[in-house]
Fold this sequence. Notes:
By secondary structure, chain A is an alpha/beta fold. Chain A contains 9 helices and 8 strands. By secondary structure, chain B is of the alpha+beta class.
Amino acid sequence: MAELDRLIRSSGGIITLRIRQRRLSERIVNLLVAQSTQRHKDTLILQWADYHKRYWAIDYDGLIAQAKRAGQDTESFCQRVKVVRHFSRDSIEDEENWNQLFAMAPNIGICILDSVSELFSDKKETVNKPAVYSFGRFSQLCSKAGCTGVALDYSEWPVNPFVAELSTVVLELHPVDYAIISRVVKHYGMAEHVEEVPTNPQRTLRRWF
Amino acid sequence: MEHCGVLMDVNVEGCSVELLFKTGLGKQRACEAFFPYFYATCKEATQAEIVAEMIAQHPQVESAIVMERYARIRSCEKEKVVKVSATKAQAVKKVALDVLTVPGVLSVCELTVPQYFKYMLEKQLDFFAKYRFSTRPDGRLEKIERMPVEELPEFSCAALCQEKKGAFLLETKNGSEPCTLFELPQKLVALDADFLFSFGGDDTLSSTGKFSATPLGCFLAGCIHLDLERDFGHDIYREGAAPVTVRQVMEVGRKRIPRVVELSRASGAKPDLISRITPGRLNTYIHARTAWQKGFLVPDAKSQAERAKSLSQLLAVDRGGLIIYPTPGLYRNVAKCDFASMYPSIMVNYNISPDTLRCSCCKDTEAVPEADWHFCKKRRGIVPTGIEAVLRRRLLLKAMMKKEPDPDRKAELDARQKALKNILVTCFGYLGYSNFVFSNVECKESVMLYGRELLQRAVGIANGLGLEALYGVVDSVFVAGGTGCDYLEYCRRVSREIGITLELDETFAAIAFPESVTAASAANRYYALTQQGKIEARGITIRRKDAFPLAVKFQLDAIPLLLADREWKQSVQQARALLDDTIARLYRGEFEIADLVVTRSVRQSPSDYAVLPDSAKAFWQEPNERFESRFVHTVHGPKPASKARRENVDCRKYKHILRLALEELIRGIGKD
């Protein structure tokens, strides 16, 4: 997690996190928000969700617990984390909604997009115009705010070429027993590689009793 | 020619509309010229005339007229928009796409609103209303006026059942007759029924290939096809079992006509659609009609996103209904009072609607409790206007039902009011559904926040009158410490002060609130005896679907013993004696196997379970299509009911369950 946090702080641009397991992604988002929320800047969570797939569930308790663990002041943390719930397919194409977000740009320290795949889950390689428009707008928002954008992608299909093109880093996380396999798909300064990070090092020891 | 009839159907085809009436002389059709239309909004209001001129040059455009409408749900002032009429219904989509390319056009609206719906709004027509109309010899409608009659004529009905593939049974007033698939279309035309009932007819008729099927269902020309399977699926308050025989289909279908009539009148949706759309979708029809009447353009999709909110704001406003936990114990003379249609009434009373949210004209008005937004006090919103009409109609039907002496008419009125209840119970949830064009999550949260505040106020009023509020859950409150008159006075006072009717639902001679397993107060767990001696319970064995009959019978016998007017200890002793007696009879074998059968549904295959539950163990010994496991605990483990033997019953297990059944009734009561 510390590695991921460093990556986010240092890279800038858009980091696409591809995680298929929902519980892991929720945990990682909570950790990210808790650790990356800065003192004088807001963290913006954009929920791109389809009603039929997910309701606007926010794990308030999990977020606050992680913030406490990260040594954040809970009260000011709750003030600084901003959420736009349920930015649906219809509202995403409305210019007025984006203008509201652009007005917030100077105060944004980190922007989390949850998630690319939920609204645009096409497995086809063809260009999906609304997806291109929306992801392009998200990229514009991040560059206007001068902040890192973290885009979550839950799809099992290969990364969308447009999303990959706009992202500076594409990272895949895959949980196995007692470990998370991380695969760097794209990075501006690193070759593609796979690494296994134990979630609890003690559990990986063999037990003879 | 002049006729008098009930409007049954309206269809737009090409550039004309056809109206179908049921008159005393049979069905009568009338047609009228109607050019399907949509609206185009302009980037600049001053350009509207120029834009209209340009659009009018399109070869498939009949006319382009500048009109004044509220272009968006949040608009405060009407602006100039262009009403674009196409030459025929099939050309509307193509014209809309072309219009979007015209310079100065911002967007197109009302493309998804059905054309028949727009026609009916323009002409102020309602389904199942009676009209006096005249037609020319060529069938063209000349004049139409509504008659102030609400009574419905006698509808001719038929029922259809598929016996086997290709063979049907058709029931009419003359009895039932078999017919083949090839005969069916002709027979239906010859019958000329007003209603055709079927159970699953959408699937069976569509699969024959003899009828025109749409993704919504199988519609028949000149006849309302009521698929009872779909109708049951969309009715929250359905009663009775699904019909099996063709006669049952006919009987059930006839009973459901009032529901179709009421919902079609209330929403403006075609009678054919009522059984095929959800109660939520009916809300869309109702609000679209209200929006149109108020001069708004009905949006095709919801575009307004929620404003960014901080976590602290969300924590304050994103809450559920209020629950006041009861102190475990036994109470006597308790009243259960319910707010009548609480959430719809809040929407109406506080003018909760996306178009009245954060208005600029009433900035100094009181904000929603715990939130930083307010609703307009000057302009009536779309959602409350639509809901109010349904609420009033339902109250009227309920009042009529109370006065009605005839049981058949009473049942019909009950079916009608329950049909409207479907709309009212879904209107709140639908307000938070993102795909609903009139939804707004802040409106939904406001309803919840007002609901919490009102329940707290109701508790405060009870305390002020010297009553004790024992338990409150969302829209009902249990009060003690008074008599029947006190409770009636309490309901009157709350209704007057809050503005929503609080009804005295029931008075209990005694009620017990047991503790939960974790020794804490439990919400939605109580058992009570009404003044008439009826048992009412929540959250205990007798309410569980998987409880075996012996446990249910034991609890039903134990509850009157526990709630009897005497010392709690004595009551518990009596209940324990009953338990010992039940267990002794169990060990003596004085029971039927059916008394011990546990019924549960099985949802997964054996490999999907980490630990195989008893229900699954028994089910896979004797699988069935219903995925229902009916089993008995035996000394050899769970066995399907059909294979269980009396001598193998695991009496120890049942003894343990029966003890738990008593324990859940007395846990935490009479501690002091």
